[in-house]
Amino acid sequence: MIAITDVHYRSQSATAARLLARAWTDDAAVSERTASVAAAGDYEPGAFYRRELPALLAVLGAAPADEGIDVIVVDGYAWLGPERPGLGAHLWRALGEAIPIVGVAKSRFAGAAAIEVARGDSARPLYVTAAGLDAAVAAAHVASMHGAHRLPTLLVRADHLARGLP
Length: 166
What we know:
There is one protein chain. By secondary structure, the protein is an alpha+beta fold. The protein has a single domain (about 1-165), classed as 2-Layer Sandwich (archaeoglobus fulgidus dsm 4304 fold), CATH 3.30.2170.10. Helices cover about 25% and strands about 30% of the residues. It is built from 4 helices and 9 strands; from the N terminus they run βββαβββαβββαα. The strands form 2 sheets. A 7-stranded mixed β-sheet has the order 3-2-1-4-7-9-8, with helices on both faces. The protein has a two-stranded antiparallel sheet with strand order 5-6. A hairpin with an 8-residue loop joins strand 8 and strand 9 (about 125-130). Helix 1 crosses helix 2 (about 85-95).
């Protein structure tokens, strides 16, 4: 199973969404879940994980592998640079390095060795990094995801679910 995640912030809380899909090419999730936690502070460039990680851990539960989760997709970077962990690497480590993490970012981060993935007719690529999985393999999976636009269908759905949108 592939878990696709996203986090949305409100003034006092953060809500994380988790979708499960059986294959990278799926157009719909087999299950959806949200979890809310108290807001974990202000945004800090390069320290995104401080805000996102608590909500992601809450929505994934104590043992994601027990749910059959083989890989987790996060909205952001796994690595910000050599030996500089991003959200994905922090999550990977928090889960005992047992489940690979694919980071999909919408904007470039200076210093990150991301693989650019062009999707649809968009001139703007997505930036893919990975922890516990070869980044080229992760990029190929992201390129294969369902949807005709820049953002894959299930990444958009995770964003909407975290925001409380239909």
